[in-house]
């Protein structure tokens, strides 16, 4: 049954925290006993995977208890030994104001028409530790649920996400939001406990930020090279690998109102030993078995594949999260003022590229992660500059928070499905790199303002096809609801874009040691197509993972749980959108989100629907002066229960511009 979203009443740094990719602290959170297999199974994780996780964590703990040099080295570089799986070390590390302007977040945050500043929402933040909660930019808005200790990287990330703007240069995306902060030690268990499963669930979070990953490929510590990949393999198997992101898909599938935002990783700029140099396998921290590097036989540099394809961190490969890459500032100076200019945004040298091993598009989007000015933990009024996807991710999480905050104002008490929020960010991103999606920039540079404007259109035109949340269903033996169709009108004056996004079931997790396992991780394969007025059929973008630099083409997508159809020059008339599936588990109801741009519809303030802002529209406001008619109460976007001068001023601006 079609269910439109309803209108009611009238949101890694190059330092190693993605500044560094591996969890390295060995302690268990103060409020959580050493996890058992049952604790993982109780949160929906596969039994074998849970057993492997517990055994690998126990091996890590035992190793650190018996290897003081390794423990000291991890502490020095802010690493955390997450686990030892089949003898292989999995280490957490961090991937570490123009950043806000680059993704058009200042307009949505500060413009009183939107006022999407995070008021009323709490964002989760898993990181190396706790932000400096007494910092003047964060005072009174930071809490910790697991006893995390203060950390420099966490303070930088929190600044991008939520600095209040005491120093206007560092004002974050969500200056009014609350942050609930955790260290990364038991992230999977804690995320399962705090993820929002139902709309508005009390005490849960709908968005979280994760600016860390695992140590991949080559890493240099104290001038000593270590190879963190699998012995005998000439490239690192963890890149693009689904195994360690599997639990995050379990969590998201069980909690469909929860969207984790994850840094893609910084390994594309990593070096490697010079030919003939000495290196050690990761784990040989006592330097007992030196090896000589042979450039002809490898292991290869992390960016060996055409500049760095297949370098996305294993944590960032989950289907249902939002994975974020890094670009330089998308700003320019015009008449002495900074303005957004996406032509100036360039790919950051550190930012990881896809695809995943099964060919999915990652990163999903990009944000500024280069020379970002943010909070420092040195004292309560100190600041610093840093680089990395660690700092791009909180910008993206902040954009998600802005949209969630605005949605709560437009539709009080309601939250979007995470597939709607993720789809909205992807749908409204500004295309960069190759036309359409690619494995470098994903779907493009986040544009929070365009996303906010689509939400406002949805409020004022609830019967139009702007945002839809619906479902398909398959019974035990036959389809129950195997196809949905929607129609809309286009006048042919602007491109048509339709995006389909859904939260998929977790796929088979495979093995972390298998190199480039191409087994498809998509479980429920939904399909999107559009039939034009002239009966032409348009199919979604498809990328070829075997040729990752090639342009996207139209075709049948069998890999991704995001599909998009783009018609650059539509003919006028009625378009039909068809959503169905080619594969779905039995006894399954699969919810999905649909987003549409380019349709003909009324604009807020055009009361007589003539397509213009004119005197007739002012007459409607005059007739309702100082009243509370919701149709005439157009400013702010969510209304203030009175028709007054603010509504006149907003309409006048539209008329003149």
The number of strands is: 29
C-alpha geometry: globular
**Low-pLDDT sequence parts:** 1-32
Mean pLDDT over all positions: 90
Number of helical regions = 13
- Strand neighbour order, sheet with most strands: 4-5-3-6-10-13-16
**Fraction of residues in β-strands:** 15-25%
Sheet with most strands? 7 strands, parallel
Q: What is the terminal-to-terminal distance?
A: 41 Å
Q: What is the structural class?
A: alpha/beta
> Helix fraction?
10-25%
What is the gyration radius calculated from CA atoms?
Answer: 25 Å
Would you give an account of this structure?
By secondary structure, this protein is α/β, with parallel strands linked by helices. The chain has 13 helices and 29 strands. The longest helix is centred in the middle third of the chain and has 22 residues, at 389-410. The protein is globular, with a radius of gyration of 25 Å.
Question: What topology emerges from the helices and strands here?
Answer:
Layout lengths: L36 H5 L5 H19 L2 H9 L3 E6 L2 E6 L4 H5 L2 H6 L11 E6 L14 E3 L7 H11 L15 E6 L3 H8 L12 E4 L2 E2 L3 E4 L2 E4 L18 H9 L4 E5 L14 E4 L9 E2 L29 E6 L3 E4 L2 E4 L24 E4 L3 E4 L7 E4 L2 H22 L7 H10 L20 H13 L6 E8 L4 E3 L1 E8 L5 E6 L23 E7 L5 E2 L2 E2 L10 E2 L7 E6 L5 E11 L4 E10 L17 H9 L21 H12 L1
Parallel strand pairs: 3-5, 3-6, 4-5, 6-10, 9-11, 10-13, 13-16
Antiparallel strand pairs: 1-2, 2-7, 8-9, 11-12, 14-15, 17-18, 19-20, 19-29, 21-28, 22-27, 22-29, 23-24, 23-28, 25-26
Helix pairs in contact: 6-9, 9-11
């Amino acid at each position: 049954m079609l269910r439109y979203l309803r209108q009611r009443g009238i949101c890694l740094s190059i330092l190693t925290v993605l500044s560094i990719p591996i969890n390295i602290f060995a302690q268990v959170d103060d409020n959580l006993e050493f996890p058992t297999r049952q604790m993982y199974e109780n949160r929906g994780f596969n039994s074998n995977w849970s057993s492997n996780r517990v055994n690998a964590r126990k091996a890590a703990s035992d190793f650190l208890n018996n290897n003081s040099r390794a423990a000291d080295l991890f502490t020095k570089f802010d690493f955390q030994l997450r686990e030892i799986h089949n003898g292989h070390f999995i280490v957490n590390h961090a991937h570490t104001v123009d950043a806000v302007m680059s993704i058009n977040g200042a307009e949505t945050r500060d413009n009183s028409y939107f006022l999407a500043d995070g008021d009323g929402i709490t964002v989760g933040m898993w990181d190396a530790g706790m932000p400096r909660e007494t910092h003047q930019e964060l005072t009174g808005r930071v809490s910790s649920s697991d006893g995390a200790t203060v950390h420099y990287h966490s303070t930088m990330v929190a600044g991008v996400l939520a600095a209040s703007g005491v120093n206007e240069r560092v004002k974050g995306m969500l200056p009014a939001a609350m942050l609930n902060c955790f260290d990364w030690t038991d992230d999977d268990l804690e995320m399962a406990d705090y993820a929002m499963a139902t709309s508005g669930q009390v005490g849960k979070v709908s968005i979280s930020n994760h600016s860390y990953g695992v140590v991949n490929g080559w890493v240099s510590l104290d001038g000593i090279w270590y190879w963190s990949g699998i012995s005998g393999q000439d490239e690192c198997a963890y890149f693009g690998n689904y195994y360690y992101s599997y639990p995050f898909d379990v969590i998201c599938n069980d909690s469909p109102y929860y969207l984790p935002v994850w840094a893609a990783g910084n390994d594309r700029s990593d070096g490697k030993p010079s030919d003939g140099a000495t290196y050690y396998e990761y784990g040989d921290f006592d330097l007992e078995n030196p090896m000589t590097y042979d450039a002809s036989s490898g292991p290869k540099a992390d960016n060996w594949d055409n500049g760095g394809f297949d370098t996305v961190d294993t944590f960032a490969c989950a289907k249902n999260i939002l994975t974020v890459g890094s670009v330089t500032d998308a700003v320019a100076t015009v008449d002495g003022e900074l303005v957004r200019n996406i032509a100036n945004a360039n790919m950051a040298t550190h930012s990881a590229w896809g695809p995943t091993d099964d060919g999915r598009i990652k990163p999903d989007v990009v944000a500024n992660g280069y020379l970002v000015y943010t909070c420092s933990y040195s004292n309560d009024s100190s600041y610093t500059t840093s680089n990395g996807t660690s700092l791009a991710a909180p910008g993206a999480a902040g954009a998600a928070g802005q949209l969630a905050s605005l949605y709560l104002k437009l539709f009080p008490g309601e939250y979007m499905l995470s597939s709607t929020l993720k789809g909205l960010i992807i749908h409204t991103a500004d295309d960069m790199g190759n036309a359409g999606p690619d494995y470098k920039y994903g779907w493009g540079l986040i544009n929070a303002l365009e996303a906010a404007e689509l939400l406002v259109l949805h409020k004022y035109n609830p019967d139009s096809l702007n945002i839809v949340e619906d479902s398909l269903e398959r019974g035990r033996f036959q389809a129950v609801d195997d196809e949905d169709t929607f129609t809309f009108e286009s006048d042919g004056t602007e491109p048509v874009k339709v995006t389909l996004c859904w939260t998929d079931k977790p796929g088979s997790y495979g093995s972390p040691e298998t190199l480039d396992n191409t087994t498809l991780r998509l479980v429920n394969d939904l399909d999107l197509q559009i039939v034009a007025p002239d009966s032409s059929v348009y199919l979604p973008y498809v990328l070829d993972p075997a040729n990752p630099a090639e342009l996207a083409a139209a075709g049948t997508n069998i890999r991704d749980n995001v599909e998009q159809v783009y018609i650059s020059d539509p003919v006028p008339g009625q378009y039909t959108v068809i959503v169905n599936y080619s594969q779905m588990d039995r006894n399954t109801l699969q919810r999905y989100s649909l987003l549409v741009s380019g349709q003909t519809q009324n604009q807020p303030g055009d009361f007589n629907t003539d397509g213009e802002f004119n005197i007739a529209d002012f007459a409607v406001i005059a007739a309702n002066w100082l009243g509370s008619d919701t149709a005439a109460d157009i400013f702010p976007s969510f209304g203030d229960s009175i028709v007054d001068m603010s509504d006149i001023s907003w309409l006048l601006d539209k008329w003149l511009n």
